[in-house]
Amino acid sequence: MEPTSIRFGGGATSTVLHPLVAVWVGLTIVLIVCLPRRYVIVPLLLAVLCIPKGQVLVLAGVHFTMARILFLVVLARWARPPLAGSFNSIDRVFMLWALSASLIPSLEWMESQALVKNLGDLLDAMGGYLAIRFLIHDAEDVRRTIKVLAFIAVIMAILMLSEQLTDRNVLGLLGGFPLTPDFRDGRIRSQGAFEHSILAGTFGATLLPLLVGLWSDGRDKVVSALGMVGATVMTVTCFASTTLGAYAAGILALCLWPLRKKMRLLRWGLVATLVGLHLVMHGPVWSLIEKVDLTGSSSSYHRYMLVDNTIRHFGEWWLLGYKYYNNWGFDMWDLSDQYVAYAVTGGLLTLLLFIGIISRSFAAVGTARKVVEGNRQEEWSLWCLGAALFAHVASYFGIGYFDQMQFAWFALLVMISAATAATTTSPVAEPMSETDLVCSYSAD
Predict the structure, then answer these.
(1) pLDDT band (50, 70, 90) for residue 2
(2) Rg (Cα) of the chain, in Å, rounded?
(3) Which residue has better confidence, 427 or 193?
(4) Please, are residues 48 and 194 in contact by the beta-carbon 8 Å criterion?
(5) DSSP letter assigned to residue 431
(6) Cα–Cα distances in Å, from 237 out to 19, 220, 252?
């Protein structure tokens, strides 16, 4: 029997585009075309992350979200200028993952509507990543991007506080978006411009380490302080254990700074601890997920069962994914775990490539930190990028990114790719000898 929880070809049947959004997008396109490359990231991220996904242009049955339109404009401008340097391992693994995540589900379903949907996902992933990659080249671009994200956090925090006070999301007036926020156990779960409250909170939670790094830089303390307040408000007002856990994970990673030279020992110690717990616990070690409840109303048991069923049904999904995962148990259709989602929809290859993106990103941060060892500010900035990455890794156990939150994730990967590439490819300048100095003047 075909799964009843999945249908392709749905969504808006006609264009949903508020005039204010149309003007906003039009102005953003003009700025993308006219501004110098280094400043384009500002209007792009403001539009992509703040415009709800429900604002969509439908042409011949094909859905073009505002993000897709803007990414295509950036890529059109990028037709000739190359990226800064060659692709590194993070970029290559990401491209392979994007292809796998789109191709394998199409092979599994063998439906034209599924192919259209997966091509749209490929445009979001590959187009979004490449567009942001073109705009972020060096440490100064990374700092500028974090400042934009801080400003967005402040805007979202104001909107989410308004939801708590008025029980209304003003963005619902644009259309294609709920006017009334979700409730759980008598609490309003604010969501701002995001498709789900957990995703809104995750944006704030995973942003905190980047803002700490910006604060430490010393040049933008006001922006970073306001951003940290906004990020915290976003984390709290969505009332979800996933976001609080990601927030705590980011802080924990920052606190591990004194152990930065002993991370290998720490990693193997963690592996040994998990193996030991698995041997002595009454249940599997992944049942620890069930114990996480930071709000008193979490669906932690559901997250545990997602992981448990995925492991137990490995033989069904490992090759091309598995379309009948909803039959594994109650509410198993709700893939509120990014690792599980990529496993059951894209097979083992997609899951391994996704883990590969994370692994290569951590490795790049570690290698770059060793290269700049002795320069405490650069070391700390790289460490904060790694801490933000760790916060995302933690959040993925409780939610999958299916709205503009995925572009915040892409932006982090690009920042890591650009920052680490610039560090590892730039040789350390040595003092010039008198002979070299004379030769230099002679050549001039």
Answers:
(1) low
(2) 23
(3) 193
(4) no
(5) P
(6) 29, 26, 21
Domain extents in the chain:
19-425
Helix axes 338-371, 89-109, angle to 10 degrees: 170
Residue type, 233: V
Q: Is the pLDDT of residue 64 over 80?
A: yes
Token pair 């924990």 is at which residue? 252
The b/e string for 15-53 (b: 16+ C-beta within 10 A; e otherwise) is ebbbeebeebbeebbebbeeeebeebbbbbbbbbbbbbb
Residue in the block written with tokens 């953003």: 28
pLDDT tens for each residue of 401-441: 999 999 999 999 999 999 998 776 654 434 334 434 333 33
- Give the whole-angstrom CA distance, residue 224 versus residue 149: 10
* Sign of the dihedral defined by the CA atoms of residues 138, 141, 146, 152, in that order: negative
- At residue 289, what is the residue type? I
In percent, how much of the chain has pLDDT > 90?
79
Q: Residue 263 is encoded by which pair of tokens?
A: 């991370």
Please, are residues 131 and 373 in contact by the beta-carbon 8 Å criterion? no
The amino acid at residue 4 is: T
| Pairing mode, strands 182-184 and 62-65 | unpaired
CA dist., res. 277 & res. 341, Å (int): 26
The residue assigned the tokens 């037709």 is 79
User: Which tens digit of pLDDT belongs to each residue from 239-267?
Assistant: 999 999 999 999 999 999 999 999 999 99
Could you give the CA distance from residue 260 to residue 382 in angstroms, rounded to a whole number?
A: 11
Residue 148: both structure tokens together = 């934009």
Give φ, ψ of 351 to 5 degrees. -65, -45
Residue 4 has a pLDDT of 56
CA 166 → CA 169, 170, 181, distances in Å?
Answer: 8, 10, 10
